[in-house]
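Morning!

This is the sequence you dropped in the shared folder:
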Amino acid sequence: MFNGILIEKDEQGYRATVKDIDESVLPEGDVTVKVAYSTLNYKDALAITGKGPVVRQFPMIPGIDLVGEVEQSDTDKFSVGDTVLLNGFGVGETHCGGLGAKARLKSDWLIPLPNAFTPHQAMAIGTAGYTAMLCVLALEKHGVTPDQGEVLVTGANGGVGSYAIAILSKLGYTVVASTGRPEEAEYLKKLGAADVIDRSALTEPGRPMAKERWAAAVDSAGSHTLANVCASLKYGGIVAACGLAQGSDFEATVMPFILRGVTLAGIDSVMRPLADRREAWERLAEVLDVSLFDDIVTTIGLDEAVDAASDLIAGKIRGRVVVDVAASG
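The structure's back. Tokens below.
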């Protein structure tokens, strides 16, 4: 038995509870990990609250991120005692995830913990920071340079937004943060935002083409926000789209793409090849100032995670939430 959050769905309804879980719940895998830390992402919050169809089979242990020590290995890729890191690959959706003290996983999903980070720091970054880095890499590979103009980051108070601002600012870009919480402007500027705008300027249906402003953008909102971002990109600009906090709809026209040569780059972090994951984590090790974590991260225990999931859905949490699994239960 081990402590964790278990999501169940039966005649009694849909529920997520912290409880002792029998190891028989764990699916097949060639590596068993004693989990030290996990995280609470938007997707985890949807799974725990049942607000979105994230969980595909039941019972399920949520948690799309985890870091921990290999407890048992049936592969030569990892040895007992190795510290490993996982982001995505359907964990927490179709395969039991990190919000439990033990996880059984496929070795093809794991990478060694980068030497630059402690286990807690790795989860402070988690899928959010890793996704933000994938977005920045997409901008760089498109040829976006700091001298080309402002880079917009939407959903700025979220985990992806917070890290995107910090990374872009450190690389010399002029970052404009879009947020629905203007009272957090000081926090966003401390991360490196040169300016902060209210998200209301982007969240309503807009024109197919708007005045050119942004050299590039990182968008985690989707819906009208993404359409408006595309409409206001400069000629040849690019937006890295990685989320749907506003919605999964995208009511736009082809005009920005065929008249301004705009690029819409979709960023998937879940099934990303291991080579891309390693590249992203290597760049994070080079760029991130670990002193930022104090401003971005809140650490909680498993017993607090279910309530925190509701707060995250309600937009009451900024930055990243790390769950200290080892200290819970």
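Headline: The first helix runs from residue 42 to 49.

More detail when I'm at my desk.
O.
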